[in-house]
Specification:
mainly alpha, single chain
């Protein structure tokens, strides 16, 4: 058996990372825009309605943590992927597609959960903002 037939089942690294960036760009963009425009307004609505209890504060602190340290975590993931490509000795090619695909799926799911949580929390708080009848 020659080496070219062994590597024929593996996707090239550039193709895997191009697909990953294509599938990550829309949700990361939506998350960034929601953190800039929607989340501060939602915090203000929560404060005005008096709903800033410990449950909401935990959610707020988690989201604030990812907003503040997102760039550092992204650089860390990119460095790990670079080191895996550079120093793996070939075994990474076997697991690259599944690993990167799982990471992309988890990040897309996290953005979906964040946006759904923001929407649900706004619906819970909205009746408290209505004037009494």
């Amino acid at each position: 058996m020659n080496a070219s037939s062994l590597n024929s089942n593996f996707e090239p690294c550039w193709k895997t990372y191009l697909k990953a960036s294509a599938f990550l760009t829309p949700p990361v963009g939506i998350w960034a825009l929601s953190c800039i425009f929607v989340f501060p307004k939602l915090k203000q609505i929560w404060r005005d309605a008096g709903f800033m209890d410990s449950t909401m504060m935990g959610f707020m602190q988690t989201s604030d943590f990812f907003m503040r340290h997102g760039v550092v975590m992204t650089v860390g993931v990119l460095v790990v992927l670079f080191l895996m490509e550079w120093r793996s000795g070939g075994w990474w090619a076997r697991y690259r597609r599944a690993s990167v695909g799982t990471l992309v799926f988890l990040l897309n799911s996290a953005v979906l959960v964040l946006i759904a949580t923001m929407l649900c929390s706004a619906m819970v708080v909205a009746p408290a903002l209505a004037p009494p009848k």
